[in-house]
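#onboarding

Welcome to the new folks! Below is a worked example of what a typical request in this channel looks like: someone posts a single protein sequence, and someone else replies with the predicted structure as tokens. Don't worry about understanding the tokens yet, we'll cover that in week two.

Example request:
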Amino acid sequence: MAPASGFYVEEGYDMSEERKGMLAAAVAYSIFGLSYLFSKMALNITEPMILLCVRFSVTVIILNLLVVFRVLKLDLRGKKLIYPVLLGVLQPVLYFVLENYGLKYTTTSFTGIISSISPIFSAILGVFMLREKPTWKQWVCIGLSITGVLMVSLNASNGENTWLGCLCLLGAYLSGAFYAILVRKLSKQYSAFEITYIMFTVGFVFFAVFAFAQFGGGTLPMIASAIGEPNFIVSVLYLGGAASVGAYMLSNYSLARLPVTRSTIFGSFSTVVSVLSGIILMRDPFNLTSAAAFLLIMLGVWGVNRFAVKN
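Example response:
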């Protein structure tokens, strides 16, 4: 199997399949971009673990309805589930715990900026896990993105963006990079829907157990209170349906057809959408330092793929 990264272009690609993969990635990451806004809206109403519990309950219901009504096929007979289950622990469990607590202590636009570092993490992991060697130009671009993240982190102040929030977000996107590489490998044995189904079933079980472990008898009243808020309902339907089912299936489809970094580079769509939605709809602050950091991160992400070595 050829290296699954943007440092190389795999041989034998069907261009029509490649275009489908690129379109799927573009749509998926655009949906992800708005998910930060809806997550922030929901977190203004309830606690992160309650949100995750309800969100993944909605997701699992939708996934099972798709199976029951034979909209999509699920066939796991004879397949080893250990690796997809481990994938589910990595993402959504670890990823969403870190991201939701990161969102709690940062703004929507800040999260969008930090999220654009994910392709850089994928590139760095490719060095150690896929034995790929970036060019010196790529290392310079990686450095630019890291500098941008440090700038926006150091600019965190006034309680809106905190170091704790920043560290949680960086941890989330690092786990996301590991997830992308693992999905690339699993796509040879499982369909995009099968991977998505297992991932979110693991997430549902984990978040339901942890919500009740954290809040005990107060869990159901907290869920009922949150569901009584129209903004929460809208947010959960978007997060559980469009973002979890739709966007993740499209993302997994893309990762099966494109090298990891070429797929995740479309995270720039997510960054632009989330930053603009935060500034326009949530009135997030956006100063010159944030703008400079944003440009450095995006320049670095672009450069890592622009200066990729081709076979």
